[in-house]
Every structure is written in C-alpha cells, then in structure tokens.
Specification:
The protein is of the alpha/beta class. The protein has helices spanning 6-18, 23-31, 59-62, 69-77, 91-100, 122-128, 203-221, 264-274; strands at 48-54, 79-81, 84-85, 133-137, 149-150, 153-154, 171-173, 187-191, 226-232, 242-243, 246-249, 256-258, 262-263.
C-alpha cells in the first residue's frame, strides 16, 4: 500500500488495531506518511501556464464591452469566471496576495526594499519543486532590474521583487517572451506597462496589446495542452472589487462559466495545483480550487 512492503503494512495495521482503532481508522493510520501526493484532484496538468494581469477595471467594464473584443473572444472560446474578486485596494497588495497568499505587510503602493520577505510564494514553490518560472515585465529597463519606476514601468505591479527566495534574474523584459512557446517556463506571469495594463490608458488599448502580444500563444495553447489566464488586480472601486477573469487553452471547456465566488487566493491555489505543486502559500492553504471549467 502506497509503496510499503505488504508485510510491514500488515504489521502496522495490526499494531493500529491493537491500539483499538476501527478498521477504517487503522487503514488511515497505516497510510500516514506513506502516500505520495498526486496532481491536485479535479485539475488538469497543463504543460505551460501564462498569467496576464491588467489593472483597475470592473467586470462589466470589460466583459461584454465592445472595447474589449479580444478578451471577449477568449471568454467565448474559453472560460469566464463571473464572480471573481480582488481582495483589497490599492494595487500592490493585490499583486502580492495573488502571488504569495498575503500582502506581506504591504498595504499601499509605496516602493519597498527588494527581497524583504522570504515567505513562500508561487515562484519559490516552483523552484523548490524543480519546475521552471519567469516573469515578463513590459518596459522593465533590463532583466533583473529592481528599479521602482522607469517611464511606464512600475515595480508595484511586479510582486516577485519582494522575495529573497525568487532570483531577480527570473524577472525578464517583455522582449524576452519567447516565440518558440515550447521554451516557456512551466508557469509565468506577464505584466504590461502602465499604459497597456489599462491603468493609464483605455480598455481598448489593453485589449489590443493583449491580442498583439499573446494571441499567438493563446492559439498555440489551444492545441498544445497549455493555458492562458487573463485577470485583473482590482476593480475601479465602484463594483465591490469584482474583476474580469478569463481562462483559455486546451485544458478549458470552451464557453464554460465559473459562477462560484473566487478571489486571488483561490486563483493562487489553482495555479499551484495546475503547476503540479502540493505546497500552498499563505492564505492559498485554506482557499479553494477553481472548478467546473476544465475539459475532461
């Protein structure tokens, strides 16, 4: 049982029974410490996951909007979470919560000292499990740069820099996003700059950027067991923090809807499970997996 030699398993069961456990209890006791965790139940195992995070728009500003034809095409061909929520305001803590299950004490948008936290996070878990990770950050001055801002680049939207257990070299520029998608990491984040993330510019600007930069990957993902996630950090402070979240790719049932209420912690837990991780960072430990949208 669970890789244990039969004779040893029987001895352990007998010992458990001698201590007065029921048959069910004895079986559970016998298996403790021996079961090898499998891929998260109910979740697929995509080869690659790319998460794109946009800024400060409510669900109804994007989903169903004529200004976002490409996002809505992904919704039609993929899955739409109709009750997806940010956790707080302003932006920066939401990114940290999505990435690490906690705002790590950061409650505003001020620039912090890089690497101030060693808390578990999605990237550190991937690295510890021997899996690959990278972020692709538009207008980042150079790979690994920890500058607070540069033109339309803002580090407050790039949570990996908060963690000493995530090498800064894994933070790449958007120009380093591969054209050979087989070379993508297992899991990666893509962060547009302050215009293209819809923070300073329009929904239409962000939608066009997404199409120009990620459509080729999305099309490829549809036939190569890979996943694109498009989500937002927070709403416009006028819709109860309800945000657009769309998932697209071969593992997703086209036209499906996830109507359960989800937040950044649920998304983090789901990304961990999709990535084949068994660890859960921060509040992801008590969150729930996104279900009801996955292709069989």
């Amino acid at each position: 049982m669970f890789g244990m030699p039969l004779s040893r398993s029987r001895r352990k069961t007998a010992l458990a029974t001698a201590f007065g456990l029921t048959a069910v209890g004895a079986a559970l006791w016998t298996g403790l410490g021996n079961a090898q965790p499998a891929h998260a139940a109910g979740l697929p195992a995509p080869d690659h996951i790319v998460v794109v995070v946009f800024e400060n728009h409510a669900y109804n500003q994007v989903i169903g909007s004529s200004s976002a034809p490409y996002v809505n095409s992904l919704k039609t061909g993929g899955a739409n979470l109709t009750n997806s929520y940010g956790i707080t305001h302003p932006s920066q803590p939401n990114y940290l919560q999505l990435f690490s299950g906690s705002h790590q004490g950061v409650t505003g948008d001020s620039c912090y000292t890089p690497g101030f936290s060693s808390a578990p996070n999605l990237a550190s878990e991937l690295i510890a499990a021997g899996k690959t990770w990278a972020s692709y950050n538009e207008t980042l001055p150079s790979q690994g740069s920890t500058t607070c801002s540069s033109g339309k680049y803002a580090r407050k939207h790039n949570p990996w820099f908060a963690f000493s257990n995530v090498p800064t070299s894994t933070a790449k520029t958007m120009t380093q996003f591969p054209t050979d998608f087989t070379t993508l990491p297992k899991t990666s984040f893509v962060i547009p700059n302050l215009c293209n993330d819809m923070h300073d510019c329009s929904v239409g600007t962000g939608d066009t950027w997404l199409k120009n930069n990620l459509k080729a990957y999305a099309d490829w993902a549809k036939t190569h067991n890979s996943l694109l996630v498009v989500t937002f950090d927070e709403d416009n402070r006028l819709a109860g923090n309800k945000i657009p979240t769309v998932l697209y790719g071969q593992p997703v049932t086209p036209g499906s809807t996830g109507s359960t209420t989800y937040n950044h912690y649920d998304m983090l837990r789901t990304l961990e499970g999709l990535s084949g991780l068994t660890a859960h960072a921060g509040n992801a430990a008590t969150a729930k997996d996104i279900t009801g949208i996955w292709a069989s």
